[in-house]
Write a structure and sequence with these properties.
Elements lengths: L12 E3 L5 E3 L12 H14 L12 H10 L5 H14 L3 H7 L1 H7 L6 H19 L7 H4 L7 H10 L10 H9 L8 H11 L8 H11 L28
Antiparallel strand pairs: 1-2
Helix pairs in contact: 2-8, 4-6, 5-6, 9-10, 9-11
């Protein structure tokens, strides 16, 4: 079967003043990246604080993980989990999802942003998995990235979480954290991903994705980072640290 490559949907964008969107870019005043010894200490502390990190998305196998990540684009993990719990109870494999059909999938995920497009993508990628991969989620990046609704970030998450590959999927949180500390500053998510994957010490590569995203989501927040309770505040070179709550 011949098919066209789908456009990557998980490019990170941020709202602009006039209601338009533009790619996220790093601050012009980003300080020099931390040195190798500091980098290792940062990950050692993140590891000590959370030895077994895991995704906030709820899934039961590689297929449900793939679907959950596709649905999480421009949506919170919490909203996705609420929608997918009953959906995955009915269909936790691509053949079962195809049997449900697009209308039923749309009904289950109607509370998630872009649910019409996402329902189409879930059905379309499920059909490809059944027809071309025997119902299994492929382990090869090139096969993942051509699935409808899947781009580089989504493929990286699946490869890391489902198959244990030391990839780092850069979302808004990791992009922010990497440029703030800074670890591997870059003007685009692709540059940050390449930089991080090149410098993260080997013992920490598998879980680096989780540590950084959780750190950005719950501590190094976008509007007001909670530096006063940050385990790596003394190692971070971000110039606008906050002094306390309130």
């Amino acid at each position: 079967m011949t098919r066209r490559k789908q456009a990557a949907p998980d490019k990170i964008t941020a709202p602009a003043k006039a209601g338009l969107v533009k790619p996220l870019t790093a601050r012009a005043t980003t300080p020099e990246p931390v040195d190798a010894a500091t980098l290792r200490e940062i990950f050692a502390r993140l590891s000590a604080a959370n030895p077994e990190p895991r995704s906030d998305l709820e899934y039961v196998n590689p297929y449900t993980l793939l679907v959950a990540v596709v649905l999480s684009a421009q949506a919170t993990d919490k909203s996705v989990n609420i929608a997918t719990a009953p959906l995955f109870a009915r269909a936790d494999n691509p053949a079962a999802m195809l049997e449900l059909g697009e209308e039923v999938v749309r009904h289950h995920i109607r509370t998630i942003g872009l649910f019409n497009t996402k329902a189409k993508n879930v059905i379309a990628l499920s059909r490809i998995l059944v027809e071309e991969h025997g119902g299994a989620v492929p382990r090869e990046r090139e096969h993942l990235e051509v699935l409808p609704g899947v781009g580089k970030k989504t493929a990286s998450v699946v490869l890391n979480v489902a198959f244990g590959e030391p990839t780092i999927a850069v979302d808004t949180h990791i992009f922010r954290v990497s440029n703030r500390i800074p670890l591997a500053p870059g003007s685009t998510t692709d540059k940050v991903q390449a930089g991080l994957e090149a410098i993260v010490p080997e013992p920490y590569r598998l879980d680096a994705h989780h540590w950084l995203i959780l750190h950005g989501r719950y501590t190094c927040k976008a509007r007001k980072p909670e530096c006063w309770r940050c385990a790596i505040a003394d190692l971070c070179r971000y110039p606008d640290k906050t002094s306390g709550p309130g």
